[in-house]
């Protein structure tokens, strides 16, 4: 059964439909949220809040056109709400390096699961981090990311491009430090 059908089942009062959605998406959703907030308990709370909102919308009879981007939209908004409430402000690396994007794509493919890559991603602004996590960790298309974050498709493309350029600069700098090259 498709995810949207499970949402329909929720509107009919079949609460067990939510169990299937939780089973399917808890782990990837938790991974996405955890990478954004860097706190296990907070990530779990946000994931729980996300599923609660999904349940509530299902009870009201709402069935999204595409479940997965809609779910990530809810989770992303919950993260944004947390950041707003917590007033967490950090300085972010904003130096852009104009280089071939193909190079950074190759770096991401080779190093996706390495901790230093995650640390490098954490240095990006929340907007760039969200689009890169959704694209490379959750494998959403640009259109699905646009739906999930409620931003125009061209903004998704721009943020991914800029985020990759910044990420490349961070990774190159980390590689220099790791190789003992001093400037």
Brief sketch in words of this structure:
The protein is 74% helix and 0% strand. Residues 88-113 have low confidence and may be disordered. The relative contact order is 0.12.
Domains (count): 2
State the CATH superfamily name of the largest domain: RNA polymerase sigma factor, region 2, helix turn helix motif
CATH second-level architecture of the largest domain: Orthogonal Bundle
Percent in helix: over 70%
Query: What fraction of residues sit in β-strands?
Result: under 5%
Number of helices: 9
Written as H for each helix and E for each strand, in order along the chain, the element string is HHHHHHHHH
For the record, give the distance between the C-alpha atoms at the N and C termini, rounded to a whole number. 57 Å
- Number of DSSP strand runs: 0
Which parts are unreliable, with pLDDT below 50 for 5 consecutive residues or more? Answer: 88-113
The dominant shape is: elongated
CATH-assigned fold name of the largest domain: Rna Polymerase Sigma Factor, Chain: A
Described by strand count, sense and barrel closure, the largest sheet is: none
Radius of gyration over all CA atoms, rounded: 18 Å
Based on secondary structure, the structural category is mainly alpha
CATH class of the largest domain: Mainly Alpha
Mean pLDDT: 81
């Amino acid at each position: 059964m498709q995810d949207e059908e499970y949402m329909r089942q929720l509107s009919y009062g079949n609460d067990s439909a939510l169990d299937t959605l939780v089973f399917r998406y808890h782990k990837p959703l938790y991974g996405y949220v955890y990478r954004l907030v860097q706190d296990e308990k907070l990530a779990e709370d946000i994931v729980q809040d996300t599923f609660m909102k999904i349940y509530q919308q299902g009870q009201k009879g709402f069935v999204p056109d595409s479940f997965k981007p809609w779910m990530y939209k809810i989770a992303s908004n919950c993260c944004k709400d947390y950041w707003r409430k917590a007033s967490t402000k950090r300085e972010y690396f904003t130096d852009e390096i104009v280089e071939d994007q193909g190079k950074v794509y190759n770096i991401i493919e080779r190093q996706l699961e390495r901790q230093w890559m995650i640390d490098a991603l954490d240095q990006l602004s929340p907007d760039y981090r969200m689009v890169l996590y959704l694209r490379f960790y959750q494998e959403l298309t640009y259109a699905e990311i646009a739906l999930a974050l409620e931003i125009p498709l061209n903004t998704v493309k721009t943020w991914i491009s800029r985020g990759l350029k910044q990420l490349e600069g961070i990774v190159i700098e980390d590689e220099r430090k790791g190789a003992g090259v001093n400037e």
